[in-house]
Write a structure and sequence with these properties.
Elements (H helix, E strand, L loop, with lengths): L3 H4 L4 H10 L10 H10 L17 H11 L9 H19 L4 H9 L9 E4 L5 E4 L10 E3 L1
Helix pairs in contact: 2-3, 4-5
Length: 146
């Protein structure tokens, strides 16, 4: 196959079969666009740099990510400074993606040490509660909520 036009009308099953014949293992776990890219170019597409762990990236790749985040003068920063700023931006994006009030967003952004946990909130009659994090049973890992 030479281009995407020839692949446009192929079903996912056909694309999987073609990809497997070209040597792609687990072809059924990829989406249509990735399969088409593999068939045309013989390689899977690069995933977005923003999704990759920053510690494994080169400085040039970190600068590209910094540019995407709008970090100014990234060319003046050392690798560890770039990583720190990118991680701060990622953390800020995580907070913005949560459905929180403006006050809660500001509070989370101002906190230095953040740990995210999940569990079941057990409320008591007196108005306080505990966030049960392990098996929904009382443990030393519980978090007091006033």
């Amino acid at each position: 196959m030479s281009n995407n036009n020839e692949l446009k009308n192929k079903s996912k099953e056909d694309l999987i079969r073609i990809s497997k014949s070209l040597g792609l293992k687990n072809a059924d776990s990829y989406d249509l666009e990735d399969l088409k890219h593999y068939i045309v170019r013989g390689e899977l597409p690069e995933k977005n740099l923003k999704d990759k762990p920053v510690n494994s990236l080169k400085v040039s790749e970190l600068r590209e990510i910094a540019k995407e985040y709008g970090i100014e003068k990234s060319y003046n920063l050392k690798k560890d400074e770039l990583i720190e700023q990118i991680e701060a931006q990622r953390e800020s994006e995580k907070i913005k993606n949560l459905d929180l009030s403006k006050n809660a967003e500001e509070t989370l952004e101002s906190m230095e040490d953040k740990n995210y946990v999940s569990g079941i909130l057990e409320l008591h009659q007196d108005g306080y509660g505990f966030l049960r994090t392990i098996n929904y049973l009382p443990s030393e890992e519980d978090i007091y909520v006033s």
